[in-house]
Write a structure and sequence with these properties.
This is WD40 repeat-like protein. The protein has 86 residues and is an all-beta fold. The chain is built from no helices and six strands. It has two domains: 30 residues, no CATH class; 44 residues, no CATH class.
Amino acid sequence: MVEAAGLTNLYIVSLPSLSIPPVRLLTPVQEYADPERLNTRRPHRVTTFAVAEDKSQLTTGFLDGSVCLYAIHPLPLLHPRRPKNT
C-alpha cells in the first residue's frame, strides 16, 4: 500500500501481506544540468535510475519520458586495502 503524505516526494509505504508496517519514505528530488542535455528553460528531472549489475552503466529515466545511458568509470581507491596479517 502506498499513500501520499502531503508533499510530492513523501510517501507512506507498507506491505501487510509480509507484515511490513507503514514506514515513511522520502524520495529524492534534485534538478541538475547535464551538458549533453542542457536546457535551462526546462531542466530535466530524473524520475528513476538503475545501475547495471556489473556496475558499468547507469540508466536514468526523465520526467519527459526520455532515457539516457551513461558509462560508469570506477574511482581509484584512495587507501588501497592491505592484506591482513594472520
